[in-house]
Amino acid sequence: MAKILVVEDDPDISALVVHKLRGAGHTVLDASDGEAALAAIRSEQPDLVVLDWMLPRMNGLEVCEAVRADAALDGTRILMLTAKAQEADLERAFAAGADEYLQKPFSTRELVVRTQALLARP
């Protein structure tokens, strides 16, 4: 299956997402702040990053923009998983390079389905 990096500063949400994605057969790594996430993305080159917006040290939009600016990470897919729910937030996330957007609170089933759909894209 795929290698996925979960970037979430809330340990309970992180544990839930990691558990569900591992249960779906993926190799899952985690990070709890934006700088650690970017370092892990560069070193591990995951197929997919499940990325929170509001993170310490570097927010999710900044991480997303840095990934999109790095040609070596061109194939990395990004699913924003965030409590930000305004239309303008959605627009900003997609403008930064997010491939998918899922609002908290979220269904773990929907998370797995959207993850599978993103990974299936060519």
From TrEMBL:
Query: Which InterPro entries does the annotation name?
Result: CheY-like_superfamily, Sig_transdc_resp-reg_receiver, WalR-like
Q: Give the Pfam families listed for this entry.
A: Response_reg
Superkingdom is: Bacteria
| Ranges of residues in domain Response regulatory | 3-119
UniProt keyword list: DNA-binding, Phosphoprotein, Transcription, Transcription regulation, Two-component regulatory system
Indicate whether Transcription regulation appears among the record's keywords: yes
Which CDD domains does its entry note?
A: REC_OmpR
Q: PTM 4-aspartylphosphate: list the residues.
A: D52
Gene3D superfamilies reported for this sequence: 3.40.50.2300
Instruction: Tell me the protein's name.
Output: Response regulator
Originating organism: Flavimobilis rhizosphaerae
Q: What is the lineage of its organism?
A: Bacteria, Bacillati, Actinomycetota, Actinomycetes, Micrococcales
